[in-house]
Specification:
It is a single chain. The protein is mostly helical. It has a single domain, classed as Globin-like (Orthogonal Bundle). The chain is built from nine helices and no strands.
């Protein structure tokens, strides 16, 4: 087998830059949510203290992007949709989440192709999370 056949494609986790970069992305996302009034409705759905939210999203995104399954190791299956059912998620809330994450990725200066791939994947997941009409 040649070297080129033996190599695997990098995961999104690798392309982002690993755990530390995912943590940086999550921190930027939650910082924006706290500081930018454009995301105030999204912020209201979260607890006053965001430490646990930051940790859980970082751990989840690690596995979701192809890195270590830290969330599953600590908490079990994410049951993402079920865990979010108590929160009203409509199109506006989905879009606010996507705008906040998109801005966080932009602020981190992720390469455009990676930014677009991630945003598409986030859109698919965020749309699946909707539990309210329109």
């Amino acid at each position: 087998m040649s070297d080129s056949e033996n190599k695997t494609s990098p995961t999104l986790f690798d392309e982002i830059g690993g755990y530390d970069k995912i943590k940086e992305l999550v921190d930027q996302f939650y910082d924006l949510m706290e500081l930018d009034s454009a995301f105030s409705e999204l912020r209201k759905l979260h607890p006053n203290q965001l430490d646990s939210s930051r940790e859980k999203l970082t751990m989840f995104l690690s596995g979701w992007t192809g890195g270590p399954n830290l969330y599953i190791e600590k908490y079990g299956h994410p049951k993402l949709r079920a865990r979010h059912l108590p929160f009203p998620i409509n199109l506006a809330m989905r879009d606010q989440w996507l705008q906040c994450m998109g801005q966080a990725m932009y602020d981190m200066q992720l390469p455009e192709a990676l930014w677009e791939r991630l945003l598409k994947a986030f859109l698919d997941t965020a749309d699946w999370m909707r539990n309210q009409p329109n």
